[in-house]
Every structure is written in C-alpha cells, then in structure tokens.
Design goal:
- The chain has two domains: 157 residues, Jelly Rolls, CATH 2.60.120; 109 residues, Homeodomain-like (Arc Repressor Mutant, subunit A, Orthogonal Bundle), CATH 1.10.10.
- Helix content is 37%, strand content 20%.
- The strands form two sheets. A seven-stranded antiparallel β-sheet has the order 2-1-3-9-4-7-10, with helices on one face. Strands 8-5-6-11 form a four-stranded antiparallel β-sheet.
- It starts with 12 loop residues before the first strand and ends with a helix.
Length: 282
C-alpha cells in the first residue's frame, strides 16, 4: 500500500507501531530523508484497490496477516503471509489488501541498496521479519550514524541476499489483455474457450492466441492457469478450504485442482494453506 495515496480511504487504515503512531493519510515516504523506513499498516475492513501511482523510493510490501494484490504494468502479484513483493521506484503500481490485513511497508531509497530493477516476489525469512518488526518500532527520522541506521543496514544486507520466487501473472498494457484478466479475476470459474474469448473482443482464436503468447510468453491455457494459481494463493492464505477454492475456480472437484496446484507450486494446496495460516499467527 502506498501511504501517499490513502486519502481515498482515510478512516479505513492506520499505520501503528508499539511506540509511535503515524497517520496513514499524510505519510509520504519520499518526503523523508532516511534511506530506509518501515511502517506497519493494518486495515480495519475491506478496501477498494488504490489507483495506479508512482514514487521515487522503492517499496517492499510484506504481509503478516491476510494478503495483498499488487499490480504493475507488467504483472500481478499476490503477497501471502510471510511473502513480499518488491516494487522499484518509478514503476506505477496499485495495491489491494484483503480484509483485516496486517502489512509492513518498507521504503528504500534508490541508491541505498542493490535491489532488483523490476518487480520481484520473495518469501521472507524469520530473521528479516524480525529486523523489519524492529525497524518499524522506531521513528523513521533517524541520524545517518546510530543504532537505527545500523539496523537498517543489516536489513538491507539480508534483503539483497533473498532469492525471488516470482509467482506472478505476466501481463502487459494491452487493453484487451487487461480486460480479459480482469474478467477472469471477477469470475475465475469462467471456462470459456479461447475462441469464445476471442469473439467477445472481436478477435479470431488465432489472433488472441498470438496476442497472449507475444505479451506473456505463455499459451492462453497456461496463462489462465497462472491466474488461477494467483487467486488460489490469496484464498488459501485467507483460510478458505481446498474444496471451496477448487469450486470457485470452476473445477468439478478438488482432485484436478490439487494436481494443477502441486505441479506449479511443488506442494499440495492443503499443505500451503496450513503453512500460511501458521505463518500469520503472532
């Protein structure tokens, strides 16, 4: 979430720590000279997705409880508990937190660390989680030399060593592809064929197939399957049952969904669900 654009929901969320509280509405990470700042954002209910925006500093969004959907012009990411997405400075993005989510937002100056130049997703280690928690309890206004600065340096060193997992939906700024993705997100159980999708957007089956492949590097079937994975990660992280998720995605039963999920994620959806629920516990 980007505090700089939160005026659309000023009463829906707040940034708080054990020792200080920062109003979500006026907080602007680009207005703070400190190279690294960390704040805790807690949503009190369901929020609409914030519109696309951009800022100078890079932003690492880390989910503690609930999940967050991050969108950029090149892809959609889901951030489950103990997951994170890195959004470099200068890249337009929007974030949408789930109900009653608890998130850390770490803002990093462009020259503070050798972070990726494109959006990437990660799984956060217990050490990084505690470093972020400690930094978020301190004032974002701190001197260049001192305990807080040293803590931030250790955090950056750990972040630059993380290997990305990059489970995301590749996309582009093509308006037809964006519309299809949004339609599938609204109704993931839609099992229309590629020919039927093409007719909806005045394209032949072959034209749509070429468009998806050229813009995403995937066939239409694989691309839709990846979107199902993104949705499944979000629902399972929120505690939905494997059976309920399989039905929401249009599967007649859980077995085929389990096979698809395990092939992509390397573990069963049931195991993933248990791990993420446990990870979100205080």
């Amino acid at each position: 979430m980007d505090p700089a654009t939160s005026d659309t929901h000023p009463a829906a969320s707040s940034i708080a720590t054990d020792e200080i509280t920062i109003d979500y509405h006026p907080f602007d990470p680009d207005s703070i000279d400190s190279p690294v700042t960390a704040v805790l954002l807690q949503t009190q209910g369901k929020e609409d997705e914030l519109p696309m925006h951009v800022h100078r500093k890079g932003q690492l969004v880390v989910a503690l409880r609930g999940s967050v959907m991050c969108r950029s012009p090149n892809g959609w990411w889901i951030v489950p508990p103990n997951g994170a997405v890195w959004i470099p400075g200068g890249i337009p993005h929007s974030n949408h937190a789930s109900d009653f989510a608890s998130l850390y937002v770490i803002c990093i100056a462009p020259d503070a660390a050798d972070m990726p130049q494109e959006c990437r997703s990660f799984t956060i280690t217990p050490l990084i989680r505690e470093l972020i928690r400690s930094l978020a309890r301190l004032s974002p206004f701190y001197p260049e030399e001192g305990p807080t600065s040293r803590l931030a340096t250790v955090l950056l060193d750990q972040l630059t060593q993380l290997a990305p997992d990059d489970v995301f939906l590749p996309i582009s700024d093509n308006h037809r592809l964006q519309q299809i993705a949004s339609s599938l997100l609204d109704n993931p159980a839609d099992r229309s064929t590629i020919a039927e999708w093409g007719r909806r957007y005045a394209m032949s089956e072959r034209t749509l197939a070429r468009l998806v492949l050229s813009e995403t590097g995937m066939t239409f079937g694989r691309w839709r399957e990846r979107l199902h994975i993104i949705i499944a990660l979000q629902r399972l992280s929120a505690g939905a049952s494997v059976h309920a998720v399989s039905l929401e995605l249009g599967y007649e039963g859980p077995n085929s969904f389990i096979t698809m999920f395990k092939k992509t994620m390397g573990q069963s959806p049931g195991k993933f669900r248990v791990e993420k629920i446990e990870a979100s516990q205080p």
